[in-house]
Amino acid sequence: VQLQASGGGLVQAGGSLRLSCAASGRTFSSYVMGWFRQAPGKEREFVAAIIWSGGSTYYADSVKVRFTISRDNAKNTVYLQMNNLKPEDTAVYYCATDRYKGDIETPSRYGYWGQGTQVTVSS
Question: Mind listing the pLDDT tens digit for each residue in 75-102?
């Protein structure tokens, strides 16, 4: 399994970015795709997740309403649309995937990770 994350950048507070995570290497129908982020000096934290089959979505409270996770099954790509960005959203964002087993917020439950993409929100 290979994951390629892209779409990060520098944006002013209130702006938007869309992250992409292209997945390859297998069929992902029974998998969950998650987005996590890690700010300097902090632990990696859950942001959002989507179940490949069915499309159920989950969000951290801090990003609900502002972020939207979606998938394109034909392209094996998951997106994270981030609106109304805040300086506290600044972090390296990672996509990750693994078989869906019910726990989608714990980083150690994911066995495959992308390389990370930097998101910086200026005030």
Answer: 999 999 999 999 999 999 999 999 998 8
- Give the type of residue at 108: S
Q: Give a three-class secondary structure readout of 12-35.
A: ECCCCEEEEEEEECCCCCCEEEEE
3-state secondary structure at position 8? coil
Q: Which helix (H) or strand (E) holds 4?
A: strand 2-6
Tokens encoding 25: 């290497």
The answer to whether residues 21 and 84 touch, using CB atoms and an 8 Å cutoff, is no
Any idea how long the chain is? 123
N-to-C CA span, the chain: 37
User: What single-letter amino acid sits at 52?
Assistant: W
